[in-house]
Amino acid sequence: MKIDRLMETLHILNELGETDRGIERVAYTYEEYIAKQYLMREGTLLGLETEIDAAGNVIVRLPGADDSLPPVIIGSHLDTIYQGGRYDGLLGVVAGFEIIRSIKEAEIRTQHPIELIGFTCEESSRFNFATLGSKVMMNKVDLATLENLQDRNGVSLREAVKEQGLELDQFPQADQSNRRVKAFYELHIEQGPKLIKENKQIGIVTGIAAPLRLAIHISGKSSHSGTTGMKNRRDALLAAAELSLAVEEAGLLEDEYETVATVGVLDISPRAMNVVPGSASLKVDIRSIYADSRERVLERIKEKAEQIEKKRATPISMEIIQNDDPVMMDEDLAQAVAVTCEEVGVSYMFMASGAGHDAMNTASRWPTTLIFVPSVDGLSHHPDEFTEEKDIEIGVTVLEMEVLKQAGGFVNN
Prior knowledge:
This protein is an alpha+beta fold. The protein has 2 domains: 293 residues, Zn peptidases (Aminopeptidase); 114 residues, Alpha-Beta Plaits, CATH 3.30.70.360. The protein is 34% helix and 24% strand. The protein has 12 helices and 19 strands. The strands form 5 sheets. Strands 3, 4, 5, 7, 8, 9, 16, 17 and 18 form a 9-stranded mixed sheet that branches. A 4-stranded antiparallel sheet has the order 12-14-10-15, covered by helices on one side. It has a two-stranded antiparallel sheet with strand order 1-2. Strand 1 and strand 2 form a beta hairpin. Helix 1 packs across helix 3, helix 3 packs across helix 12 and helix 10 crosses helix 12. The two termini are 18 Å apart. The model has no long low-confidence stretch (mean pLDDT 96). Keywords: Hydrolase, Metal-binding, Zinc. This is Hydrolase. One of its GO terms (molecular function) is metal ion binding.
């Protein structure tokens, strides 16, 4: 592995979508398409097999000595959020490409084939639908759901993919859910501060927290702020504020399980300085790798909502709009990564991921592990997102050793 070449590839791909607001290589845009074409071209020049599947995922393949054996796969995503950073997703793709390129150049032929998958549309930014490419590949979404997706400009997913030479109706052809795979690896920046805080070089993810999301509506009564006495008000905003604090408290009570609860959206109506708010809507996100902990948070929120409803005479309705299962990573692969870290003298820790990744979809069908490298200041989804080159080199070195071990019995040509 050549770290200078890896960093150069990272730079080249980040020029696609670079703006003064950050990187915008958003799903199914020209910038993301050109990034896929770059990997296809570079892979072809190396004599690798390349393709873009029916859903727009790019695949680069190094055949094995016994090509009938299940492959070892490295994958992450190419797309960014709006005003995104330089490392989220892309680092894992570039790392995989550099590993395959280095193995090819060293004339090492592994027994198992090795593949790189650059997933499309991992971020929910454009179509409000996350990990689309890996969901399609794992047969975890139907066409009826995809048919209804559109971006903030009213462009449908169908229209967007057609501009890239794809057809939405052909997406099921990208299904690889029944394929035999020996191991799937995703290398990703942590997007949080734990590794730096604990002074560890590698994070070995044990599980990925899944969201339970609520839509809450509070009905108060709009009235004149100057003529409505304080004791006669049915203030929806104050009920929402009280409930928001209850969400925080419910999450804090599950701190030992690293469960988190967030009020990410709060809208009120009417929005006037001289009117008591008559209604409020909240969106709540609860995440944990422990389903029972997440349920306890939900029950506390429900209990507090009932109390607030009676106290303030503000009816509260609550709807669960998403309830995904937490995903555990493969224990054997995680332990193997730990052994490799010990062999090369790299510090590590086992940890959960609070953010979603393509690995949570592949884990439903393939043995999967997720490896984190540190994010400076824990910053991600921001133009200032940064990971030190030395930390990237350590992460890719560990990943390369794991891939070679899993690919097995390599011989020089």
